[in-house]
Amino acid sequence: MLLAPVFRWFPGWVRVELEGGYPERLLNAMATGNVSMWHVRRRGEGMRFSCYARDYRRLRSMARHACMRMRLLGKHGLPFLLHRYRRRRVGLAVGLAVYVAVLALLSPRIWAIQVVGNTDTPTASILEVAAQMGVQCGARMNRLEIKRLEIEGLSQLPSLAWITVNPSGSVARVEVTERRPTPHVLDLSEPSDVVALRDGVILSMWVRSGNRVVMNGEAVRAGDLLISGRQETDMGVQLYRSYGEVWAQTRRQITVSVPMSYTLTRSDGKVVFRPTLTFLCWNIPLYSDGALGEGYIHTQKQHFLQAGGLTLPLGLTHDYYLHTTATKTARTRREAERLAEQQLAQQEQALFGAGRFEELSRQASIQEGAYVLSVSYRCEENIAVEVPIGKTLP
User: Fold this and answer.
1) Which of 93, 249, 296, 357 is least surrounded, with the fewest CB atoms within 10 Å of its CB?
2) 112-116 vs 171-178, strand pairing mode
3) Where are the alpha helices (DSSP H) in the chain?
4) Domain extents for the chain?
5) pTM score > 0.70 for this model?
6) CATH assignment of 112-178?
7) What is the pLDDT of residues 83-121, one digit of tens each?
8) What class is the 4-82 domain?
């Protein structure tokens, strides 16, 4: 019953209304002539029903013999739809042919690439290596060099333990598995000493391997021996690998310099707009002007179609080139101080990290056209560094 409207739509059907005359004579004639009807409804002295379009001419003759008036209420189905567009048959045929050709040409090609399984390895790096093996938008899915990617891709991406491509329709799913970091195992076969990286006063020591040479509270200089890999035994001197942490109080100094004058780049309002149409692997420029001169700042905005969380290779790329002019500008002392403080905070984070530090003194002055800020610190840090036995710091 659910498929009946579909089967009736292809041959076409009509809705008719008949009045007066002898309805029973018409029904007998329709049964004898094998004329199908459905959705029969009585309406006063007449009736309404639906029948196939091919039976309409015979139905008119039967209604005339039954002395009934027949009126057409509606036409439905494929034949009437084609008749409505009979003057556009050539265009419809060409459009259908183009659709079939485009479908046959583009369906076996890659429309989107999806990378799954990576957390630490950048997606851009994986896509770059995959593109070298032919995995890119517009490539034919049946020509992918999957085995080559599985072998050579791992050599170019050492952080991966596995990489492959699983085609899914027009989407190429690049599936990867990252290597798990191997646990650090201390190699005790290579003898070494632990020496001081810089001057300081020993606060505490944690010795895992080797002989402790200095004590807490002792002052050391850069290069002094802290943990020795030599040990006297009954069989003579034995060599071991020294390993441990030595926390000491040290002094550090950071100096930052900010020029009092700089070059300021400002826009003069001139903007060059260059759109580019992207379809699969083809980029079609939609502009005709030539190369730009100097003094332009480039910004880009992309507008691509999205489907199911994937970016399709069909869209526009808008490139904006903003013309600028450079002028020399002087900083005030307050501006230089603010910028110097920002640079100082960045260097503190990079130099000390999680270590503790305390500011002792600072000096600020203007020297040779620059604001110079110098700060001294008292720090607590690990000064232990491992060197081969008999070697010194480079």
Assistant:
1) 93
2) parallel
3) 4-9, 23-32, 56-65, 78-84, 89-106, 123-132, 146-156, 333-352
4) 4-82, 112-178, 192-246, 261-330
5) no
6) 3.10.20.310
7) 888 788 788 888 888 888 878 877 788 888 889 888 888
8) alpha beta
